[in-house]
Design brief:
2 copies of one chain form a homodimer.
Chain A: H1 12-27, H2 34-41, H3 46-51, H4 55-81, H5 85-102, H6 112-118, H7 123-146, H8 151-175, H9 179-197, H10 199-203
Helix pairs in contact in A: 1-2, 1-4, 4-5, 4-7, 5-9, 6-7, 7-8, 8-9
The structure holds a DNA duplex.
Protein name (chains A, B): AcrR family transcriptional regulator
DNA-binding region (chains A, B): 33-52
Keywords (chains A, B): DNA-binding, Transcription, Transcription regulation
Chain lengths: 204, 204
DNA sequence: GTCTATATCTCGATAGAC
DNA sequence: GTCTATCGAGATATAGAC
């Protein structure tokens, strides 16, 4: 029932979700054990099944939803802080690159590794990742539409943005280089600029 | 020593690598057991350690290299079969979408799931994936350069292509939709077309 | 509710018969 | 070189004391 106080140590459940999110993101779902999660969360093993009777799968679903929503807010914040959508896109990719370098190329997309692992093996978790991606598409489409791009090209631009970002993360983590993020970010910014600069294309 | 005859049943080693490639691609590296691999390959368990003394990690590295090279040849073949690079890009994305649907959204990139899993957890395998991606970048850069695009924009276009493809795979498998591949493919084709259509941009 | 101990299973890896 | 049996470790999950 306790949603956690505004200050002080987070609740046991919150610590488990946070630790799970970090470990799933870096090591994947099957590559992370529940024992490792409770150790990182400084929580007793039984707490996992107390808060998540559905076990690892239920914890995974909650982690996907929680970190997916947080990452969506990060995108929205970047777009709202920027003077225009093109700058917003550039800032978002630049911020992602900065985080990647600062974490030793560990922290990229919070759910991508898990998403690929479960896509063909765990239907409930696959659905959780699909809901997060769908939410991001809705979010981005709304942001670009608010900037004057038509609904259909705004959706297509968002999907291209997400694909370029996710793929750049794959390449960047493997190559240990930010070059893919820079190239992908420029590519998406250019496309956004074209859609904003030519209202006819933006309506197409 | 036996490299395998031109016809007949593939060698035990070949069957293990093939089965490993399919399972790692669909379920990931940590999510696939050696016992599952030898069962799929119809091989005895001990054969894994006979052919791969380094165990699972050595098998993983060989799978990454083998399937990475095969996928590179697939890209080259698509580009060579097409009348121009823009058509080649469209055909390649369309073929990827077709394969994805035919396999129930299982077979996308042969190494992406493993690449994300090992990027922060297994340095030898991370290097193997990096070598494959580097090889693909070299391959694509050469193909676009041969079509008349300058070396630097050809490299950037290749990286954008790979990022868009990999990210579209992530979204497509999670959403069970080919929309991301279509949007990403069109986006990359448009960029390739722009670089080919304006030699000045192509030289920049 | 919190936490410990344990049951059951599967993992990667090895030893050794044939 | 092929194949089986088994090892110890670690996985998820559960039972039950406190």
């Amino acid at each position: 029932m306790n949603a956690g106080p505004a200050t002080g140590r987070p609740s046991t459940k919150e610590r488990i979700v946070t630790a799970g999110a970090e470990l799933f993101r870096r090591q994947g779902y099957t590559g992370t054990g529940l024992k490792q999660i409770v150790a990182a969360a400084d929580a007793p093993f039984g707490s996992v099944y107390h808060f998540f009777p559905g076990g690892k799968e239920q914890l995974g679903a909650e982690v996907v939803r929680t970190s997916g929503a947080a990452y969506g807010r990060l995108f929205t914040a970047a777009m709202e802080a920027a003077p225009d959508p093109v700058t917003g896109v550039r800032d978002f990719f630049a911020g992602a690159a900065r985080t990647l370098v600062e974490t030793g190329y560990a922290d990229a997309c919070p759910i991508a590794t898990l998403a690929l692992e479960v896509a063909s093996t765990n239907e409930p978790l696959r659905q959780a990742t699909a809901e997060v991606f769908t939410g991001w598409i809705t979010l981005g489409t709304a942001a670009f539409a608010a900037a004057g791009i038509g609904a259909r090209p705004a959706r297509e631009l968002t999907i291209v943005l997400l694909a370029a970002l996710e793929g750049a993360f794959v390449l960047a983590r493997a190559l240990r280089s930010t070059e893919p993020l820079e190239a992908a970010g420029e590519s998406v910014a250019a496309r956004a600029s074209a859609l904003l600069g030519s209202p006819d294309a933006g309506r197409g």
